Amino acid sequence: MNPIFAQASTSIFETMSRLARQHDAVNLGQGFPDDPGPLDVREKAAEAVVKGWNQYPPMMGIPELRQAIARHYKRFHALDLDWENEIMVTSGATEALAGSLMALIEPGDEVVLFQPMYDAYLPLVKRAGGVPRFVSLKPPHWGLDEVQLQTVFNERTRVVLLNHPLNPTGSVFSRADLDLLAKYIVAHDCILICDEVWEHVLFYNAAYDPTLTLPDLRRRTLKIGSAGKIFSLTGWKVGFVCATPEILKVVAKAHQYITFTTPPNLQAAVAYGLDKPDAYFIGMRSDFQAAQDRLAAGLTALGFDVIPSKATYFLNIDLSKGRFAGMDDVTFAMRLVEEAGVASIPVSAFYAEHPVTSVVRFCFAKRFETLDEALRRISRFC
Q: 260's torsion region: left (phi>0), alpha (psi -120 to 50) or beta?
């Protein structure tokens, strides 16, 4: 067996979900909404599976969707993308990540990772033969530190893998952070894989700069998007890859031998959804922000130090202050699910080394009654 997977430990998500079932807990650990997603988009998928094409679609994605992606990013980010040569559809963002890493690095190449990080990044980098180099981010701002960048970049650096906005922190990198990172990417002749799946799940008018819009990064960036996050349809697994033809043509060959293609009915429905009016995207953010505000107010009233979320489905608390000071995040999360019946995620699980051990993540993408029940249980626990 390959040791990278054979020796991998049970993920924190599997552990907490098992405990949530065992203790009949309110599950604020896993990151998915309990809303079914926009009805009109789901109806388009149903219509397409009954009346549309159900054999192999084009490997790069159906033209209808790739054209819609180009229009969408032109509308929201003023990006000019050639839909035929700079856009590819994948079976979810994780497949896009796997294919990109397989295509862009060789064994021994170094990959810069920012922790806390999405749990798939490190095993995918290692399986592709990459050598990880870590930049550790700190609460509450989770910004970049030039001293750390100087330490990890060198002549062996080939790829930088960035999640922007960042899960699990709910933070958005500033333009100054991105400009700083771009300086090192250009100086070391690297490619940036930017996982931007949370690009529409933004709050409080957060300033957000897609990396492809930075002049220094336009020809060095592979951008990954996700219909699952845009439409709260996490089970659909429809992703997008946007990059210059020189980069995309190689990543497309990896995609060809992984999944080859993506269900055509879902592609047709996503194409329809991406052209929805601005009101949908504004309303989606407003609904999630209201849920975040409700959970944040409840946790603050209970005495927790809440770190505001600018993006994603997630809100964090910092245990280093207040009544739980001195308790680590794993102990707190385990006690919370076992004694109070509320599942969360300790953020130290998102680090490969030298973790921050005082931050706990909650998913607020839930109905108000679910959040209120969680708060009642946490109150009794406190």
A: left
Residue 10: predicted pLDDT = 80
Enter the DSSP assignment of 53.
-
Nearest to 285 by CA among 304, 312, 315: 312
**CB within 8 A of 350, min separation 6: which ones?**
115, 116, 117, 118, 119, 168
Q: Which residues pair with 163 in a beta bridge?
A: 195
Cα separation, 26 vs 251, whole angstroms: 40
Neighbours of 300 (CB within 10 A): 12
Kindly list the structural domains of the chain, giving each domain's residue range(s) and its CATH number in brackets, ordered by start.
3-30+279-381 (3.90.1150.10), 39-276 (3.40.640.10)
Q: 127-186: per-residue pLDDT in tens?
A: 999 999 999 999 999 999 999 999 999 999 999 999 999 999 999 999 999 999 999 999
What is the rounded CA–CA span in Å between residue 315 and residue 361?
Answer: 6
Question: Coil, helix or strand for 153?
Answer: coil
Calpha distance 2→38 (Å, rounded): 41
- How large is the C-alpha radius of gyration of the chain? 21
The label of the residue with tokens 């990543």 reads: 251
> Please, what is the end-to-end C-alpha distance for the chain in angstroms?
45
pTM of structure: 0.95
302: which residues sit within 8 A by CB, 6+ positions away? 375, 378, 379, 382
Beta bridge partners of 290: none
What are the backbone dihedrals phi and psi of residue 336, each rounded to the nearest 5 degrees, phi first?
A: -65, -40
What the block records as the tokens of 109 is: 């190449």
Residue keyed to tokens 């004694």? 339
Q: What pLDDT is attached to residue 163?
A: 98
Give residue 335's pLDDT: 96
One-letter amino acid for residue 143 of the chain: G
**pLDDT tens-digit map of 181-214:** 999 999 999 999 999 999 999 999 999 999 999 9
For 207-226, give the DSSP string: ----GGGSTTTTTTEEEEEE
CA distance 110 to 251: 18
* pLDDT at 32 exceeding the cut of 90: no
Which residue, 358, 370, 265, 342, is CA-closest to 304? 358
Quickly count: other Cβ atoms within 10 Å of residue 301's Cβ.
10
